[in-house]
């Protein structure tokens, strides 16, 4: 049995044992008060849920007994049978058998024989009397029976959040102790620091693992959404779900819920054509929408893919020029990928543009902001006439982030690795000045480069025109990537890559968009964490 199958079995066992305990309690209440409607409703609900869960896990005998019991409780609820007489011992025996079967699953043992029970339940459903012939039993074995407690405990998310915050503080202290250990260089302290570091790491990953849930818990809500939106739009849409067992932090899943809902609605409303339009274009009348998730290193990729009309890049290019987001001359040289990035600009889409760009811009700036708040990325790929794919690149956890540390004017700063494309060291000859901007050629692409100190300290005016004369010796450059735009930031010195715990800025510094928070380094120094989306927007606003 794989680890994932074992995890699902444990979850089934935890819920099934809870159901069994509740069934035993409610049927006793019903015996004392046969007209107790709340107890009857609960028994019906519990049987229905157990039936569904057991069948989903492949435990057919549990599912069959629960199904038959559900039928009897339904008859009692609808007043077609009374809770009394020979019906009572059969139902009590049925709940006892359910408990035995659940224990058999937990102990990996064969299921008990329930043929006689099923026969009696069938008789009751037909209005016949059950066969209650006594069988010899081991009195000692019978003497209300093994009691079971679940191995799983349900924990409120806020308690896990608090625990994660404490782990974050522990990680900061771990880094400080490691720094002190290196400085003092005492064998006993070095050994203790190494042990403390290992325990802190294990605790961190254990708490992070406890917060993980399968994306299927969100994906499973979309078949109904797709059905309703497709019906409202008069379209025939087939939904495919892929990667439902991929694990991600529960808080991240909560944050992307509205974004994913918007993308799915947009895909149906504006991406997919009507059956008549599709058939006229030589496509099947039924549109296809895929919601998928996959793990990629330390990230989770969630995609919304349709086989609709695609995005009209030339229409987007024209609208970007009309809005003043880019000059006509510059727009002509932009790649399709760069043009599609304009869809995420705030205010880019208005209602009158819906038909111009297949409605793809509506609200995408809000979706982008939600993803940015997680330190993630939102990408779009599209082919006219073939369809569009939106990709959400998400961290598996938002409590601890990988970051690149660097030095600028004798201060330490951090940039999240999520937005770090690469780091390079270049000589002045590697740069050109175009339109007052420093430009370097990297991987076949012209990348603008700016001195980070000028960007941070230039005030409200535009950046002064760049000059190669300002470059002295080798330049350390961090290439960041946001919204498919690469930007080189000149810094004083690269330091190292490490996991950091990002804390929110305190007032009034929390109003400064350029910083996404602060972290405490092992040296005890406070380190500002730069916000790459805000830096990119600032550069675009201040460039010469």
TrEMBL record:
It catalyses: ATP + protein L-histidine = ADP + protein N-phospho-L-histidine. One of its GO terms (cellular component) is cytoplasm. InterPro entries: Bact_Chemotaxis_CheA, CheA-like_dim, CheA-like_homodim_sf, CheW-like_dom_sf, CheW-lke_dom, HATPase_C_sf, HATPase_dom, His_kinase_dom. Residues 175-398 form the Histidine kinase domain. The keyword Kinase applies. SMART domains: CheW, H-kinase_dim, HATPase_c, HPT. This is Chemotaxis protein CheA. It comes from Hymenobacter amundsenii.
